[in-house]
Specification:
The protein is of the alpha/beta class. The chain has 2 domains: 122 residues, Aspartate Aminotransferase, domain 1 (Alpha-Beta Complex); 237 residues, 3-Layer(aba) Sandwich (Aspartate Aminotransferase, domain 2), CATH 3.40.640. Helix content is 35%, strand content 18%. It contains 11 helices and 15 strands. The strands form 3 sheets. Strands 4-10-9-8-7-5-6 form a 7-stranded mixed β-sheet, sandwiched between helices. The protein has a 4-stranded mixed β-sheet with strand order 1-2-3-13. The protein has a 4-stranded antiparallel β-sheet with strand order 11-12-15-14, covered by helices on one side. The radius of gyration is 20 Å and the shape is globular. 48% of the residues are buried.
């Protein structure tokens, strides 16, 4: 049996990691500025993270959600404290797509409505409802026709209100920062207007913080720059630092009844151990603050490079746009300079490093990028 073809693969086999570095099977070390799609939040193989999961596995790794699991309660309490949402309820799942799928389902249950408003360049996952509200025709199938979707321009409050007036909208879903779309930051005034309009017209506001959350933006959640409180917040990626875990934070104004949502693997012992370790490390090492400071430093250094067309993002979620395709630059960064980066579209390099990134490591990247750009 062979593997199904998912992504084009670089000829690199990572076998170990340490902090912001990974090492391949040839002993070559790479600076990781992509974190495996923004997943690595507290660094590769952090000893406290490894220890927490290992200790838990020695006791019990899994049982169903038909019994009490104190680790779930501990993770919920710590997430509420660190995020600023102690009064929200937490539902566990295994991935970002599942988080958005359950958020959309919950919104429809709560409102009794069936239309979802999403935005241009949005990416919310690859499961049925999540992909239906994603702006990417390559991954939308005929099965997704069952979801009534309205796609609008980001930051246009007038068009949003015009749709909400139709009264069949269950939810508006928006990313805290559009990741796949190119690190596009919603206007805080628009998010404030969207929050108010949802309340006015009886729709729920879902903020997808799967990529932009967990400290990456320099706040725990990117939408907190707009000082709003969404009805539902979806999380995953950095939540487990590589261990599959996701969830939705649910406003206390919503009263989901027992049996509405369910999961087999969500919130299992090992996932919760990973999630607790991540939050403990983030708090102890001040990683949200580091993302803000180090991200600002990197942004300022990149802003001095004349070949860059535009810089977007917050904290350690940065999109570097050029007016030419970046595939070759990314390849040279990887194979010549030993630096992992991401891309989105054809002309944006995406930087999503572990939140432990240092200013010295930023300098390594900037110097390498300048060297390559000057050769063009």
């Amino acid at each position: 049996m062979k593997l199904f073809d998912v992504y084009p693969l670089f000829d690199i086999v990572p076998v170990s990691g340490n902090g912001c570095y990974i090492t391949d099977d040839q002993g070559v070390e790479y600076l990781d500025l992509y974190g495996g799609h923004a997943v690595i939040s507290v660094g590769h193989s952090h000893p406290e993270y490894v220890g927490k999961i290992s200790d838990q596995l020695k006791r019990i790794g899994f049982y169903s959600n038909s019994v009490q699991n104190p680790l779930q309660e501990e993770l919920a309490l710590k997430l509420g404290e660190l995020s600023g949402y102690p009064d929200y309820a937490l539902f566990f799942c295994n991935s970002g797509a599942e988080a958005n799928e359950n958020a959309l389902k919950l919104a429809s249950f709560h409102t009794g409505k069936d239309r979802i408003v999403a935005f241009d360049k949005a990416f919310h996952g690859r499961t049925s409802a999540a992909v239906a509200v994603t702006d990417n025709p390559k991954i939308i199938s005929p099965l997704n026709d069952s979801v009534k979707r309205t796609l609008l321009p980001l930051n246009d409050a007038e068009k949003l209100e015009a749709v909400l007036k139709q009264s069949d909208v269950a939810a508006v879903i928006v990313e805290g920062i559009q990741g796949v779309g190119g690190c596009i930051v919603p206007d805080p005034a628009f998010l404030q207007a969207a929050s108010a309009l949802c309340k006015q017209y009886g729709a729920l506001l879902i903020v997808d913080e799967i990529q932009s959350g967990y400290g990456r933006s320099g706040k725990f959640f990117a939408h907190q720059y707009a000082a709003i409180r969404p009805d539902i917040i979806s999380v995953a990626k950095g939540m487990g630092n590589g261990f599959p875990i996701g969830g939705i934070l649910i406003s206390p104004e919503l009263k989901p009844w027992s049996g509405m949502l369910g999961t087999t693997f969500g919130g299992n012992y090992l996932a919760c151990a990973a999630g607790i370790a991540v939050l403990d490390i983030m708090k102890k090492e001040h990683l949200v603050e580091n993302a803000l400071e180090t991200g600002g430093y990197l942004f300022s250094k990149l802003s001095l490079i004349p070949q860059i067309k535009a810089l977007r993002g917050k904290g350690l979620m940065i999109g570097i746009e050029f007016d030419f395709p970046v595939a070759q630059i990314r390849k040279q960064l990887l194979f010549d300079e030993k630096i992992f980066t991401g891309v989105t579209g054809s002309n944006v390099i995406r930087v999503l490093p572990p939140l432990t990134l240092t200013k010295a490591q930023c300098d390594v990247f900037v110097n390498a990028l300048v060297k390559l750009l000057n050769k063009l």
